[in-house]
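[worker-b] picked up task from shared queue
[worker-b] task type: protein-ligand structure
[worker-b] ligand name resolved to fe (ii) ion; SMILES cross-checked against name lookup, match
[worker-b] sequence length check passed
[worker-b] input payload:
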Amino acid sequence: MGSETQTKLPLIDFSKIYLQKSTPADWDSAKTQVHHALTEYGFFRASMAGMSPEFRTSLFGSLDQLFDLPLETKLKSISDKPFHGYIGHSPTMPLYESMAVPDAPVAGEVEAFTDFFWPHGNPLFRESIRNISDKLYWLDRAVRKMVMESLGLEKYSDDHMDSTKHLLRVAKYKGPDTDESIMGLTSHIDKTTLSILYQNDVAGLELQTKNGEWIRVEQSPDSFTVFVGEVFHAWSNGQLHAPYHRVMMTGNEARYSLGLFSVPKPGYITKVPDELVTKEQPLLFNPFDYDEFLKHLFTGKIGANEDALDTYCGAKESELTTYSKS
Ligand SMILES: O=C(O)CCC(=O)C(=O)O
Ligand SMILES: [Fe+2]
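[worker-b] inference finished, payload out:
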């Protein structure tokens, strides 16, 4: 386990852009910072407008209510689809519980999730989750657009937006009731395009820099943590860095987090743009279908290691890829 440092994560202000009070220069400045952060670190914090104390109280109160439901109710939302449904009471991660709202930004999905747990309705829960999901979704699109522009690949932007879907996952990490640092979620790289997290004021998330230092994310009510997953790393032919991260818990307070995870839609073939393949940077990943990749991952055909996508469709060792290059 590496040592932790107090180094500050890059912090990029999106408030003016979100409120539509920005100039083109504000967008360009944020874009330059995003490009630098995601190529050098693979992550940054984004500050956003509209995260009032009242909103946070209703949001985290709602999550408290959700995880407080009887276990048998939560278990009803178990799913055999990877990353969907209830996860909890795992012997290796006893502090961790999570549930997912598939396609959360799509109209009706947050409502369906709410009705599943509260058949007579729960407007406060529904509105809090809808509100945060809309903000996360907005930020996901803004960041991916900035990435396309900063790589000179605007022409792929619309296609990237249209071929991406989103999963919202809400998580609770119980306080371990000790001053020692206890693993809440083991170190991993997300199997996503982008991941964006928001949390209550109990610290725990740590991200690893390229040189192996663990950085603890500082808490602030108005900031989100944005980082690259394996899919965006592959799409960018390795230009965007996908960082390891983990959750370390201490003390007795529960940590609540919400993450919006963007991934390619079923049937879409993710392919490195020709412009990013050069003599200096040869092709690292063959085209792949994300759902086929997940199937291989979850049926044990490839190990759930951190370079799973590289093992699956890395340009040097791609026997498993079923999609043939044109
Ligand atoms: O809860 C967090 O802050 C981290 C969650 C995470 O890394 C994940 O769900 O992949
Ligand atoms: Fe993660």
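[worker-b] attaching auto-annotations
[worker-b] The chain has ten helices and 15 strands.
[worker-b] releasing lock
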